[in-house]
Queue: 4 jobs
Job 1
Amino acid sequence: MSEDMAGVTIGRLLERAVEKFGDREAYVFEDRRLTFRDLARETDVWARALMAAGVAPGDKVSLMMANRLEWVLIHLAVSQIGAALVPVNTGFRVDEVGYVVGQSDSVMFIVGAEVRGRSLAQDGLKVLQDERVSARTLVVVGGPAPEGALAAEDLLARAGEVTPEELAERKATVHPDDVVLTLYTSGTTGFPKGAMHSHKVIRNMADAADRMRLTPEDTVVLYLPLYHVFGAAAVVTYMYAGGKVVLVENYDVARSLELMEQERATIVYGISTMYYDQMQHEDFAKRDLSSIRLCVTPGTGDLVRLATEKMGPSVNVYGMTETTSMTALCELADPMEFRAETVGKPLPGFEARIVGAGGETLGPDTVGELVVRGHPVMLGYYKKPEATAEVLDADGWFRTGDAASLTPEGYVRYAGRIKEILRVGGENVDPIEVETVLMRHPAVAMASLIGIPDDRLDEVGVAYVQLLRGATATADELRAFLKEKLASFKVPRHVVLIDEFPKTGSGKIQKFVLKRQYLEQSGIGG
């Protein structure tokens, strides 16, 4: 049973962490190691500096930066002074960034100097010239500030203009119901939407920490981007549990394995592509990863079993930006059947139902749409009441857009995005099923199924496949492999071998890019 976090703000959570875990290490980044006491002290400097710069309660501050200590400090500082953080995907182009900074009504834009050789400082200056953007202050962290921007050091020098007493007064005005995070979903069509969350996210992260049995002895190497809900939530999760977070600025397979061994990581966070890349890397067998006690493995049942065999005990998980990252999660005590083939039971803060097309509640083991309700569900999309009403009803039920079923025991069995389900000649085809079977082929490293229009069948499948290093297989061989294991209507009409998948900044395969490329190359749809 988790400690009662109902009335706690993120600022108070940090104070609690200092009281409980003060001199334990909280963060490691490159050659810096911060205890929880250090974390609180440096956060206060940022908070006073932001107050001196005019950031007021209710204001929004956009942040575009790779994983660095400053990302965490800024997040906690913004939370303490009653403002809301707007994390920006570092993979977004200037126009996309301008939309997010402008649509969120951010008053300040903070960027890292660069990411993977790209100057975010120069991009930031362009964003400030966007007519949609009202922010007029650009702060640059980790490098020189170009003309028209403010260096982080110069901003922090203003902290002395605000007394500790004034900061304490501001902290006391922050309420748990205040918006603290606005996370923009990276949709495949149209512009992203800003999902608003209050300080009540703490309760969800506490429940997740308890289900994972996190303690101050746990360490995670965090290469998931902090701008992603999974990464951002970890800040709260580990502050609640007193565990240590080792930040990795940019994901590199070899470096991640090195740090997991060096820091004696006990917990592994990642998405499926990261796990596959790590387990297939030439350094994997050389690394001592015996300290790992839990891998949080969102993906297929095969991945959960493979990670359990090769890396450490694994559990599946389900969550969304709109539902504060973790919605359902397995426990290590669950039988492997449930850990692999379901995404676990909903966390205590959630109610979950499966509904049919008419909104009726469906019985056990019947696939429909998963809807959830509870304090971890977003407050709504910022300045998008119509989009909010489409997914969030008057009773607080959120439509996930995911196909799923509930087992008689209450576990959620995920069946894929409803919009990604293929309709082949009147038959439903679940991409996850086809991808899972393909990845059982000894030559296959990764697979992704998309649907393309077809005059006769309405839609047919196209499977993109990346082979293991040094392995060989033809498209015809892979189709023959599938024909032995799947009904004919589930077998993709085409298999395309690919060297590398297009991915989001958080490592997810961009199916819409694959589909666009296929349609362009085949001449379908103009």
Note: The chain has a mean pLDDT of 93.
Job 2
Amino acid sequence: MTNAEGSSLTHYPLNMKRHIILAPAVLFFGWLHGQAPTWSNDVACIVYTHCAPCHHENGPGHFNLTSYADGYWWRNEMRDATQARFMPPWPPDPNYRSLAHERVLSQDEIDIIAAWVDGGAVEGDPQDAPPAPTITTNLEIPNPDISAIMEDYSVPASSSDNYRCFVLPINNPTDRYVTGIEVIPGNTEVVHHVLVFQDTTGEAQVLDNASIEPGYPSFGGIGVDEAKLLMVWAPGASAYFTPPGMGIKLFAGADLVIQVHYPSTSDVQVDSTRINLRLAPPGFQRELALDPILDHVVNITDGPLIIAPNVVDTFHAQYTIPIPATITAIAPHSHLLGKRMKSWAVTPGGTTIPLIDIPRWDFRWQGLYAFRHPIFLPQNTTVYSETIYDNTVDNPFNPNDPPNWVWLGESTTDEMLLYYFMWTYGLATDANIVVDDALHVVHYLDCQPEYNVGIAETLDEAMLEAWPSPARDVLNVRCLQASDLRLMDATGRTVWSGSATSTVKQIDASFIPRGLYTVEARSRNTRPLRMKVLLE
């Protein structure tokens, strides 16, 4: 599919169009406001904040979005990808669990982009636009305390997967604590995943010395039983930063060892993957560990992990924690048949704690996801997972045509069921530690779009009422026509939903965090009605 200028949609999933829904409010923008938003006053702020960090020269986004000309050329793709919430990439469902550093657009931002495109993609006065960002590095840890890079390795052309380990000697004479770790793949075309270990035994170096080529082959791990896992990286993953006062212990004299998975490739490729570490200043840190607490061997409850052809199958795992634990991050992992990955915890008192839900698993976008606050799990809490696999022709990523039997293994065409947890011994007060409390990412240069996407108040007042504002424990809502009603936060996330009629609907707001919200009433064949309300 191409637009009038010839730019294409081929870089999006083949089934993306079936998820594209044009916001009904967009159809009324021109009528209500008289003119569409402009790039300079509205859209540049959104794009420079949410898109340009990846879409810049030599960035991972494959094309630039750092000027009006860029935005105009890719305007239809921006509208469609944001309407589908395919971009910015953020697979976890924010309605199930809001996670730290979410890459999500607010509904207002999505509507502004759509209104701009549908209104002619006007530039406006260039002097009103924020200055274009100058991005000189893709590093999330630009000044690391330790930076180690593997020797150039020529990945041979092969029809089978290649698991190879590389020792990265570092100068670390004393025990330190890692508070930030970043994996920078040297060649994203062939690096499927990276496991980062530390080895204090020297055994990995012996294995490396015995190999003529850089690194040494090792399937399933690095071949050293006492090595400790520090980090998992897969496509789409960001750097991981520990909560304040916590760190991953890096032992004196340890070697960094990475296991890199190179899938089959038809031609020779060169890779030189780098690891950047940020260290805590000398002093006490709570020690964190990264372990696959839920897995496909030890605690899968309906295994073995074997998926028959032409079926959608579901597998579960669970583990009861024998000690109080605090978890700071979670990393689900499966392969090409993955359809949905979900995890939650149930305390001994019966309280269910949602952890993560990725309703549309995408093998190309994986990560270690940090919680906004560390989550304390009392002793004897049970953590659960549910993983759904699609081994049918409806799965566009199915590696087998026609579908074939798939079982547990580390090859890309095999499957896995893993939920890694970053954890430490738990204290109830850990839940008070702040990792990220911002409901929305801070805008580039504190810019703000000027366009008001809200429905005109004079129209709303005749149909929709919400009071008091500010509200404390109870918010009253009345709509003159039967509607589906929801309360949305600043990111467009639904925090309450129900139905509205001409009688007064009382919403219990006591459990909802304080802030600015939007009441939306929506009924079939009519435009949505929206009002802003403040909870304090």
Note: The chain has four domains: 16-135, 146-287, 299-321+334-415, 457-535.
Job 3
Amino acid sequence: MPPEFSGFLDYYVLLGVAPSATPEEIRQAYRLRARELHPDARPDDPTAADRFKAVAEAYRVLSSPEARQAYDARLRAAAADATHHRQRAEPRVEPTLTLRVTPGSAGIGRLREPTRFYLLGELLPASAARSWSAPLDLAVLVDRSSSMRGAKIAEAKRAVKPLFSQLGADDQLTLLLFDDRTETLLDGESPVGALGAEMALDAASPRGATQLAPALDSAIRRLEQGVTAGRLAALLLITDGRTYGDEERCLELAERARLLGVPIISYGLGLEWNRELLDRIAAISGGSCVFVDEPAQLSDLLREAVERLRATLAANVRLSLAPATGVSVLRASVIAPEIADVYDASNAANASDGRRQPGESVTVNPGPLTARPALESVVALWELLLDPAALTPDDTGYIALGVVSADWSLGVESASFAGRLSQPARAPRLPVDGLGPLEPETRLALELLTAYRLHTQADQLATAGATAEAATALSTSALRLRSAGDGRLADEAQRAATSLVASLSEGMTATLRAKYAIRNLNVFHQLRHAMRTRLPSEAP
């Protein structure tokens, strides 16, 4: 049956998108839903035709700016009525956010051939901000396949059980166990007093093989309701293995989570889990992927994840660049809060965007903007290619590079910012030919991104048995990290390189520890702060 929200159909739930979805995201979601629900694809489902018609009507309304505006007004009123009894006495203070764009160099001289250029985009609070006081809608997926026997399943249970007391009466918890079947212990319910679910978790024992897609599908379908009702949703996944035969379906579900604004946070136990798949799921959904060296670390990691969600300033953050004539996007990456490659024009099977037409916007989804452990920002890096044959300065001597925009969600409302970006064709101290030197912050972002890519390459090489080549990649990464100013991570990378040569098992553990330390620890903000402290006159 189509979902209803205070007396009328919830079109956002029908399409599986957040209320802040862009027109392009609504179009993508409609294509996914229409393919899934078409009567020809479900000949044994007597409700398929009605559901397909409902999805088509939802797309008709939400694809029209005027009809969507009227519908959104009804949705906000209904959401306010439905959630009034949950509102806290303390009024919510909306964070004021601003978009900052830093060009990679101060200006553009005369270009004789296609030239790379970088843009650093950052969404950050313009002033002191307080977190978004919305109830959580959390889905937790626990792998209970045979490989989880022993300490892994025991520590997974121990880590999940505190959520029953850490979450409040207004929060909702979906708890699923999965192997090659999915078992639901809690289905979007208040965890307070859910003694039966806690006892069922205690009684769970490992069995079967790993089949991830059905569990992801069940969890995301459940979270669709909470997102539209103004809840802050996230999916936590605990696994130690590899799913087989449904990897593409998992990526499709990550795309659905992205459209909803639901980050998928994965915790990989040990050495055998599918890092390439879970890294891509994190990059697509705006989530994260965490290496768990010791299962006993899980309790602290889950507690920290919930605390960060509680400190959310804005959810479903997106940063986009629509390039101008003569400008094309080669790559787009998230730099903070966690490093991830999102778009690569050379790869048609790219995680979330695929190939783009000239001038089409390229978007990154960095995940929520939070205020923990400190006031943070989300940072993206676009690598561009400038075509000198198509670039033309305007009457004021500036070259247009494109339009940079940001949008985000606050409950059932959304906000956005957009601005045109241009660079002077001539500037003081700029060479007549080519570009000026890289700006310090752009150079720092590139050093960290390159180091992370080298660690990822080392992981792949070591997994394939090419330990000497993996050690070389790690040593090169150590040089990049030292150049970026992080001697500690550089030393850790070099120790991993040495360890790989001596012992594959110990070396792999050290390699993954070093790789995810770069990715997960908000290194960019830490190093930028140190750089600004050393060079206050160069800080923007």
Note: The two ends are 54 Å apart (CA to CA).
Job 4
Amino acid sequence: MEFRHYNTNDTAIIKGAAILLICLHNFFHWLPPSPGENEFLFFGDSVSNLFNLLGDRPLEFVNILFSYFGHFGVQLFLLISGYGLARSMMKNERSWLPFFWERIKKLYPLLIVGVLFLFFTIVLTEGRLFSDTEQTELCYKLLFIQTLVPGSALTLNGPWWFFALILQLYIFFPILYRLTKRFGWKAFLSICLISYAIIYIYKFQLGLFDGEMIMMNMPGHLPEFCLGILLATNKQPKISIIWLFAAIALFVLGNFYKYFYPLTFLAVTIITIFTYQGLKAIPIRKRILKKTLMHFGGISMAIFAVHGALRHPVLKFAAIYDNAAWHLLAGIVFLLIVWCASIAAKKIYELITRPLAKVQINDCRATRITGNILQSALIAFFMVIAAYYTYAGIDVKQPNFISSGEMVESGTIGTADTYSRITKLDIDKRYTNLQIEGSVEYKGDEAIPIVLEIPDMVWTKFDIPANSDGEFKEFNFSYNHVVPFVKNTKKNVLKLYFWNKDGHCGEFKNAKVSISH
């Protein structure tokens, strides 16, 4: 098949389809019945859940299909991003710094607009400000490192994980562009091999953080992005129909077998290319659909920035009735709210970017030298963080005993005892992770939580259930904390205590706690 290069309308249509898939997926996968999805992790029962739910509740097909397949809209964005950047570079060759400045002055204000919408949504719907934990997570987002910090990629606003991914691709784009332009298919296949080698080692050989982090960062989605670059830099690209059959086979296998799962994302991208080329060849023009997709494509990044903050209030409305028609109505209401908010967000975004648009960086010898230094510094920064957490992930698998702490093995909890200490441990070194396991026997008519605290680093609680039969009952708990690279455990202290905030009575004995790293 001869590939017909995309024009402005084509890219807008594909972006429109992509953002609708992503937006509705991020809404419906929170709304039962949801089969789950294989986006960052592979779950073997997700595809069986898909077919079972379609058989048991066929009227919920909109909910079920968007829940399972909608996240593949990300691949459409990556394809179009790689394609659009390469076509732009071909028209106006420039060094890294002018290129990166063009991207960052558009990307960062978009994130700021998203933060504003999230802030006011929380204020209006929950009547509060950002908590301390949320402020920390917001800092990771503003630094675009949330996908490198375990457990942070999907916090605060889940869809924003894509900001970190796209920034990484912007940093490496000129290198990828030059390689692909010079070596064509050889460069693309080499990049794919390197990318999949990293994925399989990280995800299946080492099993670090269940392999989730690697699928949120550049190695996990480099092939789709580079395929867009390859199509753009090839003057008359032709794609064999064998690629389509291979992509369909890999996509099917990737939904049933975990070792094929990483290939599903490139497979979907290839299937999309063939599908859209086929649709373009059909002479029938559906103008309403075309204009609708182009409209949503034009505001796609604004939708992406704000839709995550708006879904939870609508989900409460959707949960009123467990009914297919009601769920569909909730999805339409959500889309309308997001549409209106995105139009407003785009106006704010344009207002913010207007003064930045006037700031240009000319391509000259000085900017090339500065750009090379800055690019190298950014690559080193991200690689150091990635290396730190990779080491932390390996360290988690090889725990070393630290200490059992200063134990209080038994005691009573009175109504006036707000805090009853179990153990306290001074941490003597800088560790990348801490693993806490323990047990306690408890007797009491009311539930009392145990709190694990490391000041300015960890605060989490475990709820001990009530035990009113007059006998002690053992309660086990465990917690693993990967220490953020900006934190130092040395000279800090780990505290474990009962938090009797409701003034209950109880007794405990045989408290045991072990701490390892």
Note: DSSP finds 15 helices and ten strands in the chain.
